[in-house]
Amino acid sequence: MTASAEPLVHRYNENGITTLMLNQPERRNSLSMAMLEALSTELEFLAEDTSTRVVVLAARGNVFCAGHDLKEVRGELGNDEFQLALFNQCSKVMQQIVNLPRPVIARVAGVATAAGCQLVASCDLAVAADTARFATPGVNIGLFCSTPMVALSRNVSRKHAMEMLLTGEMIGALKAEKIGLVNRVVDEQVLDETVYSLARTIAGKSCHTLKIGKEAFYKQLEMPLSDAYEYTSKVMADNLKADDAGEGICAFLEKRHPDWKDS
């Protein structure tokens, strides 16, 4: 198989952990329209795939994702319909990640910039190699990172988000961990070990419970405090009706491992 015939996104599943691998390192895994459409297709599949318990989003090469394909963007200057469709498609993919009923972990090695940084921020969790770097550098080329700002500002404090957006400067992995963009920073030699250990831990939980919790987490974030408590109280009461809640409580009281039915 030639490089041109390879899929833009590789998907493989092992023991309930599905890895989506961005597979265009020669183009810095940029989010071209084709790459975004390929990602969207994979996420649509995973939304219905009962064999998947956790998703790992990774990338081949030394760049996780360089954001939009600027050659493509430049080639379509003046084509307002394409430009709007491109950013709408990118926004769709980010929302698919958030709305996916399975947890998504970003495995970040190398650079994640602009919409690539947005991709990391959109994942539920992120583990980075200590050599990883992040930036929203659109301001440097006269194109403010307005859509990356949505995910970034929902993950880090306003002042840290604004600093990244206004300066366009690269930050290291440790700074990204400090401001909440990533969960953990590890030596690149143990990146896979750390990511998949975390994935296995999560995969050992009830899928039904994780689905309920992930959906509730993002919904309550946008609510006033009293509304959030009212909503999550109902979520917990409904959650108690699930088979896995009953099994989990019994298993805890009986000091044994639960036998999840994912229902």
Automatic annotation (TrEMBL):
InterPro entries membership: ClpP/crotonase-like_dom_sf (IPR029045), Enoyl-CoA_hydra/iso (IPR001753), Enoyl-CoA_hydra_C (IPR014748), Mitochondrial_ECH-domain (IPR052377)
Keyword line: Fatty acid metabolism, Lipid metabolism, Lyase, Transit peptide
Coiled coil: none
Gene Ontology terms: biological process: fatty acid metabolic process
Pfam short name (any one): ECH_1
Superkingdom as given in the UniProt entry: Bacteria
GO molecular function, one term: hydro-lyase activity
Known role: May play a role in fatty acid biosynthesis and insulin sensitivity.
Similarity-based family: Belongs to the enoyl-CoA hydratase/isomerase family.
PANTHER family named among the record's database cross-references: ENOYL-COA HYDRATASE DOMAIN-CONTAINING PROTEIN 3, MITOCHONDRIAL, PTHR43602
NCBIfam families linked: PRK08139.1
Name of the protein in its database record: Enoyl-CoA hydratase domain-containing protein 3, mitochondrial
Biological source species: Marinobacter salinexigens
